[in-house]
Amino acid sequence: MQPELDVVIVGAGFGGMGAAIELKRQGLDNIAILEREDDLGGTWHVNHYPGLAVDIASVTYSYSFEPNPYWSRLFAPGAELKRYAHHVADKYDLKRHMEFGTLVEAASWDPDDQLWRVRTGDGSERTARYLVTATGFLSQPHVPEFPGIKNFTGTILHTAAWKDGFDFTGKKVAVIGTGATAVQLIPEIAARADSLTVFQRTAIWVVPKIDFAIPAVVQQLFRRIPLTQRAARLVNSSLLELLMVFGVLHFKQVKPGNRLAARLAKAHLRSQIDDPELRRELTPDYDFGCKRPTFSNTYFASFAKPNVTLETSGIARLEADAILAADGTRTEIDTLVLATGFNLWDVNFPAFDIVGRDGRNLGKFWRENRFQAYEGVTVPKFPNLLSLNSPYSYSGLSYFTTIEGQMKHIARLFGELRRRGQHTFEVTEAANDAFLDEVTDRLQSSVFYNGDCSTSRSYYFNQHGEATLLRPASTLRTLREMNSFPLRDYEFS
Ligand code: NAP
């Protein structure tokens, strides 16, 4: 039987779009991009809370082959990323492949017909030679079951399901969570709400954000002489890379780099908060880099405002019109904001049921064995599957480094298939084992295993306490390896 499609790509964010661009370059055009949301853009479509912006400068946080000279700021607001996603989809003719409001529920490998059977929410089935999952890392919102939350009669907003235009003026608000999202959102709420109580379980490292509007003359320079924007990208990416490689991955060898970043964050806190007790509460008790650090010039300053209170004793329960802290403090509220992040390790990895050869279930395999994927892309017994949001796939530099590395991997793999005139690939168990050993080994120098991360509650760690999200390699090394992995690591048929 011939499949209906060459490729099913699940997810129309920057990952799925990058994969589609590369697969089209490889000559595959019969592609369906299935997306559960009603528009493209992934994270940048789903998230639209006030204050949303990139936290990797835009010259770096974009496809290197599709620079946008018109970013309004060094750290572009979220809405510009959504517009950029539309621009990319138009330019690379991706929209005709996209099907919105299509939830993929399951996929299974059919060994007889050598194709993937993909079941969608309406009960129908699509067949494809290749399956690409690009469902994101931070795509399944985490909504904790706080005691009494069902009795709360006010408004509840999760940051990933925002009500546009919601007006905080005069509101009595509680925010739960102090992750990267809350760091962007809290100053916005603090500026408007009557009162704001922030429930912090784990403090976060925050360093100053050097951000400014990009003048029109610079935009024109970037447009007319693209080399200038490439140079800006190179400088910014190199600085981030130094922080990542020396501050996080080689913590064991270069502790001072990490300590310097922590000192910078502490000085930043001191410059904005006078009260030593408040400073103590806002200071993390784990090493810099255990958890994703953030950038903000206004987050700490928000806690110095008279209408803002930091609550660190924990949450006891919610009542119809109040939230009770574990220390007994009762705070009347009419709006509850859940900045409680995403669930990676329980309900993602993978985002839906995937069954490969010999009945191997990907989620079960990852949970019962170690989380693993060869080069962060492929898994033994899953022929013709490219799982873009896999363990060890995420480059610490930027999501775009991740996807561009994966595009190189796709190009090499499909180039070989074409050369051989074959249609099926599968990574060998031996290559996968060797890759897992190598990344496990390389991670031993990182802050995750040498630093003090025990209290960080970081999503970089899975439920077994292993740091299996980041690929422990420099960007240059990742790109080189994606471009040159031994072809014997795959079996082709
Ligand atoms: P997050 O980093 O996972 O933070 C979730 C917050 O909610 C944490 O402070 C967590 O506390 C708290 N929380 C969760 N469950 C709780 C509970 N039961 N009780 C009390 N507190 C609870 O999620 P996020 O802030 O949405 O950020 C996720 C990631 O998105 C970031 O790390 C970043 O990679 C990305 N992001 C990027 C941008 C950007 O500009 N590009 C902006 C925002 C976010 P604990 O720490 O104690 O668990």
From TrEMBL:
InterPro entries: FAD-bind_Monooxygenase_sf, FAD/NAD-bd_sf, Flavin_mOase-like. One of its GO terms (molecular function) is N,N-dimethylaniline monooxygenase activity. It comes from the Bacteria. Pfam families: FMO-like. The keyword Repeat does not apply. Keywords: FAD, Flavoprotein, Monooxygenase, Oxidoreductase. Gene3D superfamilies: FAD/NAD(P)-binding domain. Belongs to the FAD-binding monooxygenase family. This is Monooxygenase. The lineage of its organism: Bacteria, Bacillati, Actinomycetota, Actinomycetes, Mycobacteriales.
